[in-house]
Write a structure and sequence with these properties.
The complex is a heterotrimer. By secondary structure, chain B is an alpha+beta fold. Chain B has 5 helices and 10 strands. Chain C has a single domain (about 5-595), classed as Up-down Bundle (Cytochrome C Oxidase, Chain A), CATH 1.20.210.10. The radius of gyration of chain C is 24 Å and the shape is globular. The chains are: A mainly alpha, B alpha+beta, C mainly alpha. At the B-C interface, helix 2, helix 3, strand 7 and strand 9 of B face helix 5, helix 9, helix 11, helix 12 and helix 13 of C.
């Protein structure tokens, strides 16, 4: 939460506090507090994904064949491309933050827009994968194998979508009027989220598609 | 006259099954122990009870003493705790940890590995009685392999809520469920095991005296969970042999190859 | 006295915002942690009433089976002639457990005390994320609404036990929107808990007043903080279990479906149990750690001496927190797990009893040689010690696989967790309520009514839950609509009936509290002073009763630990037996031990 710029201040016990003093917009230490809150938040989400990965592991261990003999196997190419997309998007975000700090707002805004577009690309490619598998007969009610696949990938994609909306909004602000300190703070925090979601994707690619 | 006599034996057997009456328990203690190995569980339970009671009484007595002697009129002793008092505290806990926790752990390891979970030894025992139990909402189906020793054949004896075993012989049950999780519970034998659909679980016991005992369900399995009651009858070895042979003969005669639902057996799993 | 420069610096780092003025912002969508705390309190107490009523229905069925339920029978069970039937019975015990755990104890113990006390006791003006705090309450309210909705749908509410084990909890085992709504409510309340946990964890780490080191925190804060860590880490695992169960119910997936309804091999019902208990065991520690913390402080306060070996208790609580997730398999001993795994879980379970014993014995050594004041909060604290002692000891039986062979899923388990969760957490919450009520509302609860409430509660809990232990010892299983179908249980009719009668008395006795609460909050009452209990922590020494919107005019600077009571030096210098945490006493020589703690 941002501090309010206020000209009122609590009077000191002996009433000698000068009135009309302006209080700065960000309190020192507030960035660190927000960062810590984000870390705890991501820790919680990591545990939720851990529960899902644990389920995947147990279900897979119990299955005699994976994929089951009559079910389509998962593609490697497009999801692999998505790994690259994700890493590029994260890179663009890192660049955007660095350029903002270095006083280059226009390139930063462009990088941010790039990160957003790459995020949208991720979702688009993932949709192509889903549609192709659906057409090949892989349905969520077709047993534990598609259950795990759809649950993990859809849940992850929902997280990407949420981050994408935030990034798009920030990118729009950056392109239009530039990002002030609260916007930069928000970008830093959403950047952590975006890295988290990207890391989960890499783990998911390796665990679900490759192995 | 002879026809009536022919009817008497199955009627008597059937009547015994229908009106099988386990004896009620007296008081609030553990139910009568009809098993050869249940005393191991009972020993641990009583040991833990005594240990807990001692700990509880000592701490409670200290508390009550403190209420009486260290009330408002007593001057509070200003201390954050000393090395001595913390040491005494840890020492007491260490003593409890060794004599209670440690003892429990050791005895249980022995009991589980030698008796209650020792299925590999039972695999090799030719005299062990093998039964497949299929739980479903809300009854227990039990299947005996019959004289040919194989499950899923014509002479399999299938009973409903009615398990009979010979006294003194180890019984091994493979337990499964068709619908939801149930739990086979034999209070007079101090054992239970969950029946989980998609899994086959193992449970073993050995009866020490003949009689009728109850089978209960120990896992919430729907509205009629409370009615999922069966009777475990412990017979003499001869009584058991007579029973199983009669039932196997009836089973062969009553076998219907088209009755798919009745053929729920599985090949006896190895441990 | 702070200098103008100090005040200025404080105003810059922790500015004082003007309080809200509109009705909505003041009372409904408030971001003030104190208001949110009271919102959680009302929400929790309301559902405590619902959960308690459901318990009375269970006891009626066991005490007086197949008889028409008085009063409530006509209102709620009219369709069945005022009788409880088996299908209704399973809904009753399911929702009793769920409501008590998630919608009664959690909001009161963690939502109320966490929100109210954390900023005040650490010397902050509010939580780190006040808006998130407000959202966490309204998310919780949404989950309560989902629970209410579940009662109103066609096939009624959930009936698969509070644990919702599949396959019974799948739409094959328990069809209908009610079960789905309840699983969704679980997910939503999990989201609320996680939001709250983020706030609690961050606030304690980042917003402690100057001088408030970790080893000077009140034990209440340690309890609440460790609880929040467990919440943050393990509630999401429940979320994953609930999510997968919802998918199985609504989208035909096969995570947990097995048996006849399985497709292509089906799922694994035991997977659910793993996920559930990886959450479920930490959850019981979530429910007791705040009570342990409150007890640590309250016992010291009313024995008028410092807590014995404060560090030992802190480390013990940390140890319990760390171990809590490693013991979860003891709920699954009967599922057919590998013996090695079972033995490992047993080992950890027996190990976790050690730090618990440290906490309990430290309480005993705290009151020993004290100068005990038997106020209502102290009575409840001592009562909590007693019931937790019984509950903890009965855990020994259940953590051992051999004994669990016999005792699993009997009423002995029910007695164990009622002593620890219902009695100890509840009485711990009552300790906190009676103790901090003057600070929250600016008035004091009636001591006499409080003592009546205490005696009804302690006797009631002991007899009712003791009755559960006894019938469980005799072998009676849990969750039986009619236990007396079993011959071996028929001899327990009398005991079950007496237990039920005491349960009704226990329930009735709670109205002493309800009456006390309502008449003090809404009626005329004497204002409580700023520090009526004469204790040392910041909320008492540096904030008014109730506190101002901004909590502290000047953020206090902490100089010592939270239990400086009975110090002879302090008596000499100040003429009283307590020294505030932030109190400047220049002539006081802190003892080397106390100084070393800083």
């Amino acid at each position: 939460m941002g501090a309010v710029s206020s000209t009122a201040a609590s009077p000191s016990p002996d009433g000698s506090l000068p009135r009309g003093r302006v209080i700065p917009l960000r309190r020192p230490g507030e960035a660190a507090t927000a960062w810590l809150g984000m870390v705890v938040f991501l820790g919680s989400w990591a545990m939720m994904f851990a529960g899902l990965f644990f389920s995947y592991g147990l279900v897979r261990l119990r299955s005699p064949a994976w994929p089951p003999l009559d079910q389509p196997s998962l593609p490697l190419l497009l999801p692999g491309v998505n790994v690259a997309v994700v890493l590029l998007s994260e890179g663009a975000l890192v660049l955007a933050l660095r350029w903002l700090r270095g006083g280059k707002p226009r390139p930063a805004a462009a990088a941010l827009a790039g990160a957003t577009l790459l995020g949208a690309t991720f979702l688009a490619l993932q949709s192509v994968v889903w549609v192709s598998l659906w057409d090949a007969g892989l349905r969520p009610d077709g047993g534990p194998y598609p259950s795990v696949f759809y649950a993990l990938t859809v849940f992850h994609a929902l997280h990407v979508a949420v981050g994408l909306v935030a990034l798009a909004w920030l990118a729009g602000r950056a392109l239009a009027s530039g990002l002030g300190p609260p916007g930069r703070q928000a970008l830093r925090l959403w950047g952590m989220y975006w890295h988290f979601v990207g890391a989960v994707w890499v783990a998911m690619y390796l665990a679900v598609y490759v192995v | 006259m002879s026809r009536a006599r022919l009817l008497v034996l199955p009627l008597a057997l059937g009547a015994r099954a229908a009106f099988a009456a386990p004896l009620p328990e007296k008081g609030f203690g553990l139910p009568r122990d009809a098993s050869a190995d249940g005393h191991l569980v009972d020993w641990l339970i009583h040991y833990t009870l005594i240990a807990s009671a001692v700990i509880f009484v000592v701490v409670l007595a200290a508390m009550v003493w403190s209420f009486a002697r260290h009330g408002r009129s007593h001057q509070a002793e200003y201390t954050h705790g000393s090395r001595a008092s913390a040491g005494f505290l840890l020492g007491a806990i260490g003593f409890i940890a060794v004599t209670v926790d440690g003892n429990l752990f050791y005895r249980t390891l022995v009991d589980m590995n030698e008796v209650f979970w020792n299925f590999t030894a039972l695999e090799k025992d030719p005299a062990a009685v093998r039964i497949e139990v299929n739980a479903h909402q809300w009854a227990w189906l039990a299947r005996y392999p019959g004289p040919d020793g194989k499950f899923g054949t014509e002479d399999d004896v299938v009973t409903l809520n009615d398990i009979r075993v010979p006294v003194g012989v180890p019984v091994v049950i493979q337990l499964a469920s068709t619908d939801v999780i149930h739990s086979l519970y034999l209070p007079n034998f101090r054992v239970k095991r969950d029946a989980v659909p998609g899994m086959v679980n193992w449970i073993t016991f050995r009866a020490r005296e003949t009689g009728e005992y109850e089978i209960g369900c120990a896992q919430h399995c729907g509205p009629n969970h409370y009615k999922m009651r069966g009777v475990l009858t412990v017979l003499s070895p001869e009584g058991y042999r007579e029973w199983i042979e009669t039932m196997a003969r009836d089973a062969r005669r009553a076998h219907d190859p088209d009755d798919r639902e009745a053929h729920w057996a599985w090949d006896w799993r190895s441990y | 006295m702070a200098t103008p420069a100090q005040v200025l610096e404080q105003v810059e780092t922790q500015p004082i915002h003007p309080p809200p003025t509109s009705f909505w912002r003041k009372h409904v969508f408030s971001t003030d942690h104190k208001v949110i705390a009271r919102q959680f309190l009302w929400a929790g107490l309301l559902f405590l009433l619902v959960g308690g009523t459901l318990a009375m229905l269970i006891r009626w069925q066991w005490g007086f089976p197949y008889r028409k339920v008085p009063i409530l029978g006509d209102v709620f069970l009219g369709a069945n002639g005022g009788l409880i039937g088996p299908a209704t019975y399973q809904k009753i015990f399911t929702m009793h457990g769920l409501i008590m755990i998630f919608f009664a104890v959690t909001p009161v113990l963690i939502g109320t005390f966490g929100n109210f006390l954390i900023p005040l006791m650490i010397g902050a003006r509010d939580m780190a994320f006040p808006k998130l705090n407000m959202y966490s309450f309204w998310t919780f309210a949404l989950s309560q609404a989902l629970v209410v909705a579940s009662f109103l749908v066609d096939l009624g509410t959930a009936g698969a036990g509070w644990t919702s084990y599949p396959p019974l909890a799948t739409n094959v085992g328990t069809p209908g929107a009610g079960q789905t709504l309840v699983v969704a409510a679980l997910f939503v309340t999990g989201v609320s808990s996680t939001m709250g946990a983020i706030n609690y964890v961050t606030t304690v780490i980042r917003l402690r007043a100057p001088g408030m080191t970790w080893m000077r925190l009140p034990l209440t804060i340690w309890g609440l903080w460790l609880t929040a860590i467990l919440n943050a880490l393990f509630v999401p695992v429940l979320g994953s279990a609930a999510l997968l169960l919802l998918l199985d119910r609504s989208f035909g997936t096969q995570f947990f479906v097995a048996g006849a309804a399985a497709v292509r091999g089906g799922g694994d019902p035991i997977l659910y149990q793993h996920l559930f208990w990886i959450f479920g065991h930490p959850e019981v520690y979530i429910m007791i750690l705040p009570a342990w913390g409150i007890l640590g402080d309250v016992l010291a306060f009313f024995a008028r001496k410092p807590h014995h070996w404060y560090r030992g208790s802190v480390w013990a609580m940390v140890a319990v927190t760390v171990l809590s997730a490693m013991v979860y398999g003891h709920h699954m001993f009967m599922t057919g797990m590998s013996p090695l795994l079972g033995e490992a879980f047993m080992l950890f379970t027996l190990t976790i009893s050690v730090p618990s014993m440290v906490v309990v014995l430290n309480w005993l050594f705290t009151i020993w040689k004290g100068s005990i004041r038997f106020t209502t909060p102290m009575l409840f604290a001592l009562g909590t010690m007693f019931v937790f002692g019984v509950g903890g000891l009965t855990g020994l039986f259940l953590g051992d696989i051999s004994m669990d062979l016999y005792l699993h899923d009997t009423m002995f388990v029910v007695g164990h967790f009622h002593f620890t969760m219902a009695a100890a957490s509840f009485m711990g919450a009552m300790t906190g309520l009676y103790f901090w009520f003057p600070k929250m509302y600016g008035r004091a609860l009636d001591e006499r009514l409080g003592k009546v409430h205490f005696w009804f509660s302690i006797v009631g809990f002991t007899v009712v839950f003791g009755g559960q232990l006894i019938v469980g010892w005799a072998g009676q299983q849990r969750r039986l609509f009619d236990p007396f179908q079993y011959t071996f249980i028929q001899g327990l009719r009398g005991l079950n009936q007496w237990t039920s009668l005491f349960a009704f008395a226990l329930f009735a006795g709670q109205f002493a509290f309800v009456w006390n609460f309502f008449k003090t909050v809404f009626g005329k009452a004497e204002p409580a002073g700023q520090n009526p209990w004469e204790v040392t922590t910041l909320e008492w020494t540096d904030a008014t009763s109730p506190p101002a919107f901004h909590n502290f005019d000047v953020i206090p600077v902490v100089l010592r630990g939270p239990h400086e009571l009975g110090n002879p030096e302090g008596k000499r210098l100040l003429g009283r037996d307590w020294i505030g945490q932030a109190e400047k006493v220049p002539a006081l020589r802190e003892t080397p031990a106390a100084a070393a703690k800083a």
